[in-house]
Design brief:
By secondary structure, the chain is α/β, with parallel strands linked by helices. It has a single domain, classed as Metal-dependent hydrolases (TIM Barrel). The protein contains 16 helices and 9 strands. The strands form 2 sheets. A 6-stranded parallel beta sheet has the order 4-5-6-7-8-9. Helix 5 runs parallel beside helix 6 and helix 6 runs parallel beside helix 7. The protein is globular, with a radius of gyration of 19 Å. It starts with 14 loop residues before the first strand and ends with a helix.
Length: 352
């Protein structure tokens, strides 16, 4: 199939907002973890496959993760993608010890920034950070945004079983809010404490486990009151909102019931009242991995047309047929341009 043409011929540019890369240095660190004793089972399932399996899928993806140049741009051209918003692939530094993770993220941000300088009309970067060392992570976010022109911060969900609602991570969230960039909450395989039943059924990764784990992380930011502490923080979640838009009614009902009955010490009244209010005011949603018109339209209806963005999920899921399907949605051109181009322009401060 011949891919769609880029350059706005369809009436909009296509800005893909959840695209992954990896550095050689990070992958070398991953090798050491894989070769060590008792590696995290989710990490073994995820990167153990992509780094060491000889299947066509694994080798194709792994080759492209490492490229920030001609190969990536050729793939973009073949799919009609004008711009990629790029972040460090899962699990990023989250699996590493604090010192190693801090070095890996600084190096990764430098490499991504250099690629963005070389291809300013094609690449936009998101800053990685090592949340294991919160104070150092805050400094790196500030450096990456102010000195490297990164347009967002990205974390691959849980940090060795811990979540960003823990007070120890507040310096990270404070830095992101202060720098006025969004936080991309990207999936990771579930932590050791919850992965077992999923792993034994082959459901731990993108097919299901990613969405369960990341959706829970997003909810923790809401129900814990973190977004009342950091009210300007904007969070991006992919894969059609990790299913949360479709649970909004029940989330609101059960949250209110739990608060009223004082069932959990950790669940208190929220300043905005309902979970759905935070989803509509503090979250943006991308359709990464979900090239499905009914889902896109539902999210636009309940979250807002100005908060739903296009993404591809390169190189993990990027068939040209999905671009064609999204182009063909029965949607007025104004809304479609918001979806493909304008929402991303505004959120990531992309200058065209």
């Amino acid at each position: 199939m011949t891919g769609p043409k880029k350059g706005g011929e369809a009436g909009y540019l296509r800005i893909a907002t959840e695209e992954a890369f990896a550095t050689v240095e990070m992958l070398q660190s991953f090798d050491r973890v894989l070769d060590g004793g008792d590696p995290d089972p989710g990490f073994l399932s995820l990167m153990g496959f992509y780094m060491r399996h000889k299947s066509e899928r694994a080798t194709w993806v792994f080759e492209r993760l490492k490229d920030l140049g001609a190969l990536r741009i050729a793939d973009m051209d073949a799919r009609g993608i004008d711009i990629q918003v790029i972040g460090l692939t899962s699990p990023g530094p989250n699996i590493l010890d604090a010192d190693t993770a801090t070095g890996v993220t600084r190096d990764a941000n430098d490499q991504l920034a250099e690629a963005c300088r070389k291809h300013p009309d094609r690449f936009v970067g998101m800053a990685a950070f090592a949340a294991q060392a919160p104070q150092e992570a805050a400094k790196e976010i500030e450096r990456a945004v102010s000195s490297l022109d990164m347009r967002a911060a990205i974390i691959n969900s849980h940090i060795q079983g811990e979540y960003l609602d823990a007070p120890k991570f507040y310096p990270v969230l404070e830095a992101i809010e202060a720098m006025n960039v969004p936080l991309y909450l990207h999936p990771n395989t579930p932590p050791r404490a919850m992965i077992g039943p999923m792993l034994e059924a082959g459901l731990d990764g993108a097919i299901f486990g990613f969405g369960v784990e990341t959706g829970m992380h997003a909810l923790r930011l809401i129900t814990s009151g973190v977004l009342d502490r950091f009210p300007k923080l904007q969070v991006i979640i992919g894969h059609m909102g990790e299913a949360l838009p479709y649970w909004m009614y029940r989330l609101d009902f059960m949250h209110q019931a739990a608060v009223k009955s004082a069932r959990y010490d950790t669940m208190k009244p929220l300043k905005k009242g309902t979970v759905s209010n935070y989803l509509c005011e503090n979250f943006f949603i991308t359709n990464s991995g979900m090239a499905w018109e009914p889902a896109v339209k539902f999210a636009q209806d309940v979250i807002g047309k100005e908060r739903v963005l296009y993404a591809m999920d390169y190189p993990y899921q990027c068939p040209v047929e999905e671009v064609v399907a999204m182009d063909a949605m029965e949607m007025d051109i104004k809304t479609k341009k918001m979806f493909f181009q304008e929402n991303a322009q505004r959120l990531f401060k992309i200058r065209l």
